[in-house]
Amino acid sequence: MHPDTLAVHMGEEPLLAPSPLVPPIYQTSVFTFKDLYTAADVTGGVQEGYSYARIGQPNADMFAAAVAALEGGPAGAVAASGMGAILAALVAARDGRAVAAADEIYGGSVALLEGFLRPLGVSCLRFDAHHPESVPAEAGAVLVESASNPLGRLSDLSALAMAAHRHGARLIVDNTFATPYLCRPLEHGADLVVHSVTKFLAGHGDVTLGVVTGERDLVRQSQTALVTFGATPDPFACWLALRGLRTFGVRMQRAVDNARGVAGFLAGRKEVLRVHHASLSGHGDHALAARFLSGEGPAILAFDLRDEAAAARFIERLEMIRYAPSLGDVSTIVLHPATTSHRQLERAEQQRLGILPGTIRLSLGIERLEDLLAELAHALD
Ligand code: PLP
Prior knowledge:
Aspartate Aminotransferase, domain 1; 7-stranded mixed sheet; 39% helix; 14% strand; globular; binds pyridoxal-5'-phosphate
């Protein structure tokens, strides 16, 4: 079945008969047993079942099954947030070795490596994902983003997977920006895919959640890490995320179309110095988009105004589009990466990565394109 259809049907209620069309919320922290033998078998892993919600609960399993189906992975594990998913995947995949992450990556992931894993004694390395041969040989886990935050840069995922595997490392792809609507990294050789479900998968700005999917043993180890850290999710968050996922295909289609339309519009405006979106034929990653992003750009784009003051004025003049430090919502939202999502980076490092004081990130929602263009034209005028 097409992923759009899977998103509507996967993770349907497996427990009750007759099964409800919409699954119930199992809002319980613990499950009961009729006798001590069943309890021993379930808690010992001999028999399938639920015992304690931190260890596993039906709403998480339903959502994990749905995302695994979308990504074409055999298994999935749900985390309390995208950061929880990334930490669990790194811990599971590194196998006691170093962790390597691409230079262009979400600021929170940089903070996880530099501010948390490194002080714990984990060797943390960085490399340029546009040069797969630069994947460090010492790494056990290699983290890249299929479309990078905030500029939506793409890289050759097949070459990165080959480079990682040559060193006996596992490739983890953060697919939050591209989503399985545009890119399925497991098909290109990735071992694990992680998501901030908070974004396009849930889609409505009302859930904080993450997910890991991919190779079964690595997912099992990721799940063990999540259970041990206490970073497993709440049932209601999983229920909301599955509800949001039902409309994934139609939401993404509209958002991706809007991004292409807005990118073309901005490219024609004299106030805009540069538009970062791989759908544009002049963009450096346009050829990679054909191979890895279904020929599209992500439903997020960035563009450069003259300086920070121009960016601030533009954002102040927006009326319908609101400033919010997130992305992947049904409503279009705007953000200034240098002072928000990537504030952890030194100014010089921001400049090196192309995140300028005048750079603005726009995450496209599902509004009508003509209304978005009118709003953007008004703010630019
Ligand atoms: N990965 C990417 C690409 C992100 O943009 C974010 C958050 O913005 C995360 C991971 C972290 O996700 P969460 O906020 O759900 O922990």
